[in-house]
Amino acid sequence: MAEAKKKKKKSRFMDTFSRIFETPTAKLGGILLIIIVVLCVGAPLFTKYSPNEMDMTNMFCRPNAEHWCGTDNLGRDQWSRLLYGGRYSLALGIIGSLFAAIGGTGLGVIAGYFGGQVENLLMRFCDIWTAIPGTLLCIVISTALGSGFFNTILALSIGAIPNGARMTRGQILAERTKEYLEAAEAMNCSKLSIMFRHLLPNVISPTIVGTTMGIGATITQAATLSYIGLGVQPPNPEWGAMLSAGKNYVMSYPYLLLFPGLAIGFTTLAINLMGDGLRDALDPKLRK
Questions:
Q1: Band (2; pLDDT cuts 50, 70, 90)
Q2: Would you call the peptide bond into 51 cis, given omega within 30 degrees of 0 as the criterion?
Q3: Which of 16, 83, 185, 249 is in Cβ range 3.0-4.6 Å of 43 for a Cys bridge?
Q4: pTM, 2 dp
């Protein structure tokens, strides 16, 4: 019996995984994302230069066989900085979205399950929260906490919590009157057990999709913070910081902005395409 259950769980996972890549766009996004992640994680294997290695004799070197993406105003290899900077950008996007999903899901489950005054209080708080534009809120939080990698993660995650809370709360409201919850209450299950053991698994799919789709937006927002000097600080390479460093030379050396911009664009595109495939794979209406 135990082996049969394991096989059943494995087949469901494999079925979901295979459905993600049923569409050509999801396949394209998956391949592109894998390439980007492999290049960034294995950066030392794909470049012979350190990201902060300066060569004053090769300042503003245009893209060539030696420096594929050229060099910047300090003679640093842009290809190397792109790969190492991708580590920061991907980490900011993934960790920031994950923290936001955890916080938003927790608030949404509590508000949706308890209802009444608890729901009104939490949702009105979220209304005030969302009244502030996301980027502006991130700027305010980053200014208050200071720049840096971990402070940037906090700013990105705090600003995205209300959206996750609203989405989860809506899903909980649709599930709150189901019979399995009445059965759990009849068995004297604790409220925490009902919320996070019974309710949450039945509403987690939209949260997973929303979190995946939000990674691309979080990467873009992290680049915005770094661009205005509130994110990852020099000399650490990060795509937004690279854009900020190259903006003063856009007319003479446009490649300093072109390559970091393309990196952000292609990464966001790949994640969004993957998110579309994940949404279709987890949609019960599309299952046979």
A1: very low
A2: no
A3: 83
A4: 0.85
